[in-house]
Amino acid sequence: MNLSYFIASRYFRSKKKRNFITILSRISMIGVAVGTMALVIVLSVFNGLEDLVRGLYASFDAELKIEASEGKSFAVNEDFLNQIKAVKGLDVLTEVIEDNALFKYDDYQHLARIKGVSDNYLDQGRFEKGYLWGNLDLGNEDQPKAIIGRGVGFYLSIDLDNDYELLQVFYPKAPRNAGTLDPRQLYSRQVIKPTAFFSIEKEFDDNYIIAPLSFVQSLLNYGDKRTSLEVKVVEGTNISSVKKQLKTLLGEEFTVKDTDEQHAGLLRTIKIEKLFVFITLTFILAVASFNIFFSLSMMAIEKKKDTAVLFAMGATEKLIRQIYIKQGAIIAFSGAAIGLFFGYFICWIQDTYGLVTLGISSSVIDSYPVKMIWTDFLWTSIAVISITFVASYRPAVIASKVKPKDL
Fold this sequence. Notes:
13 helices; ABC transporter permease; 407 residues; cell membrane; ABC3_permease_C
């Protein structure tokens, strides 16, 4: 067995007397354990929230979204669409026209976004996550139907069972005669029947109404123009591969975004928050590790005679430094191992049984999401090792300077 480790472990496990230094070492170990456990749990919660956001947005957004690089719309024709559909791995191509409009139901009004989609929109597996009330049906050209965000439905007090009240949609247009006094020349107006509510995420719930493409095309007078094309890839196909093919086909005039890129700002914010939480908790862990510094410093003072004896027996300064550094490592690693275990155990309990709830009855999920990633455990361990070395080095140097003649 390594001599420095053997002596350090004997110091740590010594039961000869329970003095203040021993108690401080145990407190140091508990502090490291609590800090490590907190790091693992909080980072796992951030991972869970990131996955939750991805899942919620993915249930509303397309796997790939094609938009014009400049301007908000672009013209399409059959040849253009057929070229895109011919891309290997592409399963469903949905045409989309999206813009702001004013909605009126009974005496209530609300400004929101209307999203006109082609008939195959629901074939993309939309609304698989979240809540849905009513019939998931967009109707036909003769009787168009709308799927409405729950927030929009609340603002407009929409009653799905009322077959006599229809949703009115208004969209501004440039008047043919600039001097007209007829207000009806200033806007387009259409009516549509609400058929269902969806609830996915507040941003979508409060701002979106889904309607048939032909209805929105007529309302906005878009003709053959589209604001975007949404793509679903064949199950099991690599999305990045399809994305690369589409970029090559469409060139620089179009952008092709996956679900992460469509909400890059939000996901970047979550990652930055996670980073700052990691840094903050690491500093707290460093503060907790100051106990290691104090306990080793006091031990170096208490063990002066032992150190002098070791020097007299031929020990080198390097050996003495290793004893105290390994003593600090034993304290820290014992605490870290306990913290990693309990952090993993608590995250597993939360993931399996959902003991800690969000406290929101209308939430898509009932409890805090967690997801454990091995890199979090790795970086936590690296942080503990670094802090331990810094906290142990100075006391080890002090202890190595003790000489038999000084006693």
